[in-house]
Structures are given as C-alpha cells and as structure tokens.
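Throughout our pipeline, every protein is held as a single compact record rather than as scattered files. The record that follows is passed on verbatim for readers who wish to inspect the format:
___
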Amino acid sequence: MSLRHKKVQTVLGKGLSSEWNDDHVVNFATRINWDERWMINALTDNWELGQETSTTPTVVLFWNDYVAASLYAAGGVGNRSTIRRKLLNVAADFTGESMQPVLEMAIGIFSPTADNATHEFGFFVTATTPFTANQNGAFFRIDNNVLWAVSSNGAAETKTNLGAPSLYAVYMIKHTAAGDFFYIDDLEAAAATHLTTLSVADLTIKLTCAQRAAGVNEMDCQAIWFSGLRQTA
C-alpha cells in the first residue's frame, strides 16, 4: 500500500503524474515479519509463562553450541513447561486466518515418552489450557511418540499421522481460511493439508511439553519466524 500527497483539483479537473508529490511516500510492506532467536531479549520480554506448572522453569540456554529456549516438564505427572507469545506485555491472541499467518519453528524433541500427548507447538487460543481436547488452532502434537498435524475449530479435529518425530527439525504451519498446510524440513511439499475443522478464532504462538507417567519430557526451540498479511483495506 502506497499513500501520496497529491494536488487538489477542481471538479472535473484533470491531474498529471508530475503533480504528485513523490518525495512523501508511505510504502508499508504487505506482510508483517518477526523472528525470535533468543540471543537479544530476555525470555519474558516476548513470552509469558502463566500456564507453566513444571518445577523446572523454561529458560534460555547456550547448549551444544547454540542458543535455545529450553522447556523441561518435571515435578510430577501432568506438570507442563509452556510459553505463550505476548502482545503489549501480556499473553494475548494476535493473529487469525484472514492474516494468513505463517509460522516456522526450529525445534529439538528428545526421546518423548510413549504415553499420552507429550508435546504441542504452533497456533493456539491463548487462554486454552495445553492438551485440552479440541483446542482451537493449527499445530503439531506428539502423542505416544507419534507426530501429528492438527487443525481444530474448537469442536472437532482433523489430524494427520506424520510418523515418529525427528530429534531436530524445522516445522512450518500456514493457516488460512481455505486450509491449514503443515511442512517439515522439505518446504517444497506439504506433509499434511487440512481443509476441514479450520479455526476461525484469534490465535497466539504457544509451545508446550508435559511430564507423563513414563517420565519427564523436554524440547528446545532454537528459533521462531512469523509472517502475516498486513491489512490494506
């Protein structure tokens, strides 16, 4: 979108391109882009931990030669380590299907336990408790050591089995009114495409892992990149 100051003409008057004031141009990009690499801001500058119950708090670490947000769910069965993206310094929803948001996450998953849902990461409604059934959103879930792509409208889910999760991978989600598209590493072709039970709710970015009966669970996130359409009309 470009906005320019222009000459005011009388009714039925004609204007020339030379009469436009070209030295005053507002040219906003059509997409909003943002990334988190954990090396500049403190964790709580951009992320909120209000849903975290783990006795080991989420922290940013320099580990194995890279910087990452480290989530470690411990302290008892059902405890969870989770972070939510903040808006104006509070946990809040900030995107939806009309914005056509795209989310990429570089994530490590370490030996998830094979009992119940252990990990979720992607787009969710801020206030919903992690691992609640039929959460509004578009996200990845690990359940019994199987990776799933999930789309939910709050009443029902569409999900695709993507096999065993990799130790490290880059995950991408495109959330639109027409469909949800899920990618893993190879961004040429979607690993899953969902055209039903699509969320129309406002969403945020959330990452979670939980302790289960078989033991603790953890994950790290090396980087997050977000892009979404800017409103132009």
User: Anything to note?
Assistant: Confidence is low (pLDDT under 50) at residues 1-5. The chain has one domain: 31-229.
